[in-house]
Design brief:
single chain, about 55 residues, alpha+beta, 3 strands, about 50% helix, about 20% strand
Length: about 55
């Protein structure tokens, strides 16, 4: 079963980039994310949408 939410660290590992790159994608609006407290979580659906746009 796939996860529903991913951390920035998990997304960075998936694409072989640093977490700063993931945060940059979020800030620029390229990748949608939910802010939970001081952390971000990326929904599986939003990650799939991001992959399609690449």
């Amino acid at each position: 079963m796939e996860k529903e939410f991913y951390t920035c660290k998990e997304v960075a590992a998936r694409y072989g980039v640093c977490e700063d790159s993931v945060w940059s994608w979020i800030r620029s609006g390229k990748l949608k994310a939910l802010k939970i407290g001081r952390n971000y979580r990326i929904r599986r659906e939003d990650l799939e949408e991001f992959e399609k746009s690449k």
